[in-house]
Fold this sequence. Notes:
Radius of gyration of chain B: 30 Å
Region (Disordered) (chain A): 28-102
Oligomer: heterodimer
Strand content of chain A: 15-25%
Structural class of chain B: alpha+beta
Low-confidence stretches of chain A: 78-98
Protein name (chain A): YeaH/YhbH family protein
Distance between the termini of chain B: 64 Å
Largest sheet of chain A: 6 strands, mixed
Low-confidence stretches of chain B: 223-227
Pfam families (chain A): DUF444
Organism (chain A): Natronomonas aquatica
Helix content of chain B: 40-55%
Mean pLDDT of chain B: 88
Helix content of chain A: 25-40%
Order of helices and strands of chain A: HHEHEEHEHHHHHHEEHEEHHEHEHEH
CATH superfamily of the largest domain in chain A: von Willebrand factor, type A domain
InterPro entries (chain A): UPF0229
CATH architecture of the largest domain in chain A: 3-Layer(aba) Sandwich
Amino acid sequence: MGLEDDLERYREVGEKRRQDLTEFIQYGDLGDSRPDEVKVPIKIVDPPEFVYDPRDIGGVGQGDGGTPDVGDPVGEPEEAAGDGDDGDDGDEPGEEGADHEYYEMDPEEFARELDEELGLDLDPKGKEVIEETEGDFTDITRSGPASTLDFERLFKEGLKRKLAMDFDEEYIKEALRVEGWGPEAVFEWARGEHIPVSRAWIDDADGSIPDGERSRWVSIEEMEANVDREATAARIRREGIEEIPFRRSDERYRYPEIVEEREKNVVVVNIRDVSGSMRESKRELVERTFTPLDWYLTGKYDNAEFVYIAHDADAWEVDRGDFFGIRSGGGTRISSAYELAAEILDEEYPWSEWNRYVFAAGDSENSSNDTEQRVIPLMEGIDANLHAYVETQPSGNAINATHAEELERHFGDDSNVAVAYVQGADDVVDAIYTVLSTEDDDT
Amino acid sequence: MSMDDRIHKQRIADSLEEPTREANRLARKLGLDPFPVNYWIVDYDEMNELIAYGGFQRRYPHWRWGMQYDRQRKQRQFLGGKAFEIVNNDDPSNAFLQESNDLADQKAVITHVEAHADFFRNNEWFRMFGTDPEAAAMLERHAETVAEYMADPEIDREEIEEWIDHVLCLEDNIDQHRPFSTSGEWEEDSPTGEDIDEQLEELDLSSEVKREVFDDEWLEQISEDEDGPTFPESPERDLLAFLTTHGKAYDGDSGKAVEYEEWQRETLELLRKEAYYFAPQKMTKVMNEGWAAYWESKMMADENFATEDEFVSYADHMAQVLGSPGLNPYKLGFELWQYVENRRNRRAVIEHLLRVEGVTWRNFNDTVDLDAVLEELEPDPVVDDPVGHLEELDPEDPRIDREILSGVRDGELDHETVETYPWKLLTYQGLAERHYSLVKREHRGFLGSVSQNELERTARYLFETDRYGSIEAAVADVDRTAGWDRMFEVRESHNDVTFLDAFLTDEFVEDNDYFTYEYTHTTDDFRVTSTDAADVKKKLMLQFTNFGKPTIAVEDGNFRNRNELLLIHQYNGVELDFREAKQTLERVFELWGRPVALKTIRKEFDEHDIEVARRRDREPEPTEQGTLIRFDGESFEREDLPDESVADIAATDLDYDTKPDEWL
């Protein structure tokens, strides 16, 4: 019982009421998610109430430095429902417009769920040797989970520090009672004696010495001869310790011994045609198809990296943030992208260490002969678990847009090349299925 | 909690010991009378939990708290994670301070909290729930009860959560103006038709009277046709009580209404009790927040409770709180309280000035030099800077705290203490003069803005018109505590509705640039419709009356003679949100177990009228149509009612429409 419990129940309820994944992929708002966090809207119904119609009730506002004129428009009142229809008949609760809650899943969960919904079965392969954490907690590091904190060591270091910082206060105060000595002289002297006292402390203590006692000792020598300096250890034994000065820098965390293991790592190359013919609707379909593929592969592999290549007649590498937004003029030469992809993969992602996926999307338009003469040989030359081309052509095939067909004709049912056609959002999930179910097990 | 954590919190608690102690003393000096407050130091996560739980540590289990917590966390992450105050209405009150706030913020919270605790204790609306809320204990008990039901293998947890949701839809459908009573007590107080015979017996009437007045015909009439009587006798606004007493659950398997299970009845009852507990806070939001903001500023800024270097951060915080856009209850309340204070102080001054020889309301503006009056009203240097005048202070002066003064003079109290807290040397009366509102820079114009009308009205109620020989003598006699005294009276008896009604004056609306807006059909957006004070007030009242929600009442628990439930919407010119209303009816069905209906009035716009209006740049006139919506558990049906059937619920002289007649 308690909030933790409520939070867990909320996750359960959220999972149950979240939008169906295929529906989410095809029609949902993908823009709220991040590469490492998929946010699926939850249909949460806030308890309904008897309330006034938000339009009919109007409201009161306060002018910002002056009264506005009658007839001036005011911003949408905060509480006005987004849809604004009179809802006379059965709108589903929790629809667009209302505040969404999100069921957040990491890519692993996304991949698991998608496997389940689409009946996929993609088995990632281990490649590069990396370090894994498994074994006894014998090593020590400076940060880690609280449960692995080496408290004994922290305490010892604190104690050492305490001993080093401590000094006999009474002894210093006696020095202030030497005739003619002020804080400055005492500080100099204490420094010489290696007593770790601050000037501020001495100034403070000086104020508490009654005037009558200021010349108790004729000289420092006389004081030293008559007053015993008590060792810190003796004092601690006598008085005990009130407080141990713990310092973050003393914290050490026990860390498990390192065991080697192969990591399942993947690089995904996303290629997109950004030429003039790729209008908004085509662009959106590419995003809808590629984004879930990215999540899926991120979730399947231990380590996923992404390369984004945009091209028209030339190709260039871009950041993910820019990838789906770019529009360019110019013609189209798909091979330019594969040339760049081959270069990047060879340099940074050797086939011996990386699983590779090369996904391209566009409207199938290409320069004449480019597909046959350049692209196909390039694709054959790039070792990869899977090559895919996704044609996004909302209006069906254009006459000279034959790239996808040519690929299909050439590769046929060849194991590791997938070709998918997306005319509208309805086709997205099928395309994803086509792509992900094509990978051959013995690649 | 780790040791580090504990040490850290302890250190903060130590550093706040003096501020909390002194804030309470100062509050008491200023005339506040707060519940004792327990302060708790909490970390960021704990603060989020408290916010999600509505200011308490334990609530009944429900996933919605988890959702709120999640929302809260994300929102505060986004906003930078500062929270300023959580205090709950309890005796003692509990207030929570977030450890990461700096000292200036903590002090601001503490002063704010003391004022809330005073409001909780002294505002009469909070007494509706009884004299001792025992809130934390009650909510914890509720939490345990519900948790036990949930742990019961016979009861499905989800079913309980759903049941709670059904009830929460109606949490504002209580009778918040009546003192809380358990639904058992409520039932005894509400006669139903079934009891009529019994009641007639109790009345002990002679048989002649019975025969004459309560004849069979009458009995039959009130019992509607053959069998079922109509009840309640008059429309009942406490839907939750009515349902607890007469409701049934709907059993989907048998398709029949069945008696509530024990857990259903208990859960409904405890949620109803919580609704009554939280109602006063909803009813006094503007007053209560304004009250806290007012006294916080008195203490923090005017009494230098914030040290100089803390002041900037405090001022920044205050500006944020008061500056958030839209209709801001903090700001509205704060301004209204200042207005209450100024207005009463002004009246006290005017009353005295009108008693000066030769001054009448007619010649007031020509004979009285208001700048000179303000000069006279400036606080005596002795109260303005008591520490600087320590030698001159007179222990017999009612403005001086005699005990503290003698303490300082005897050396029992060190000088430093009164230098830090000069208010210690003063009494309530002394402090009232020290902080006298009319001479403050921001209010200096207030005295001069008195209207001719107010002068005349004030003069009319004065009996002794010639008492003072000079203006100086009259001003010297002005009671400087009048403003504060009035504020304390008002905080005792008002709620937001009466508060706005009484103090939201034309002058106030105009000074603060308030305006109303409405949806306009011709432009399909919201437009400013009026800056007239009366219109603004009308709209504002609508937002605060009955939690800003339409009034719904039970009209008949035996509707159509079939034990259906008929609710009525007491229409005031603003129609319901029908989508929400229908969804709510579905939930009411779950709590009633049988078909439910709602009688209301709907506004209809003719397409043609809209078009014509658009062309003429006017607003179309709606037709008001009586409507009955009925839900039988599966589907809705809607029936138009003739005007005479809705005469009982129709708006009479109420009109919340502020659109000008000639539009634009």
